[in-house]
Amino acid sequence: MKKGFVFDLDGVITDTAKFHYIAWKNLAAELGITINETFNETLKGISRMDSLEKILAYGHKENDFTTEEKEALAQKKNEEYVKLLADLSEKDLLPGVHNFLVQAKERSIPCAIASASKNAPMILEKLGVLDFFGHIVDPETLKKGKPDPEIFVKAAESIKIESKDAIGFEDAQAGIEGIKAAGMYAVGISETENLAGADLQVASMTELSVEKLLTV
Length: 216
Ligand code: GL1
Ligand code: MG
Hints:
By secondary structure, the protein is α/β, with parallel strands linked by helices. The chain folds into two domains: about 5-15 and about 90-215, 3-Layer(aba) Sandwich (Rossmann fold), CATH 3.40.50; about 15-85, DNA polymerase, domain 1. It has nine helices and six strands, in the order E-H-H-H-H-H-E-H-E-H-E-H-E-E-H. The chain has a six-stranded parallel sheet, with helices on one face. Helix 6 (about 120-125) links the parallel strand 2 and strand 3. Helix 1 crosses helix 4 and helix 3 (about 50-60) packs across helix 4 (about 65-85). The longest helix is centred in the middle third of the chain and has 18 residues, at about 65-85. The chain is globular and about 50 Å long. The mean pLDDT is about 95. The site of 1-O-phosphono-alpha-D-galactopyranose (GL1) has 15 residues, from helix 3.
């Protein structure tokens, strides 16, 4: 039997991935760099500064800015992103998420968040689901981002289970790779992308039952 769940946030719990895309696209445009949805797939699950570095490299501007300038650019993106979240509330939970979390709670299955986003606690609070999670991994404590397994291993440890007993949920390819490298069972959630390496892929969490998943 599996013993716990580890969730990505953006694109799994709520559709904030679209707001990250808008904010990155606008910042890139100001720098004369055009990004599209295909390129955006490679940003999913990637930390704020690493995302900026990837965008600059994509536009051949990786050597054009000082560290301070890059920090200011990342902050600017975050300010726009946070503005886009102003109306975020329970209605923005993705389909099936609330029901799944309730089912997990009824069975006393611990849940943790493994997101690269520094905004995770604020977002979970706005969504009204903060209390369902035993722990939110602080991305500042990580040596390496996804696809490294570190964030998933830390998430399992934080809810006192072994990685092999955990199930991870992800919408991004880098995340699926991290979950598998941690030795967990990987559930991919995407309507549009083929998430290579996932043990199971669904279009939304409405397709999942806690009881059935625990015995995979
Ligand atoms: C960071 C990036 C986002 C996204 C998330 C992970 O979030 O900026 O584009 O890749 O990590 O889902 P944040 O800026 O909220 O720390
Ligand atoms: Mg995600």
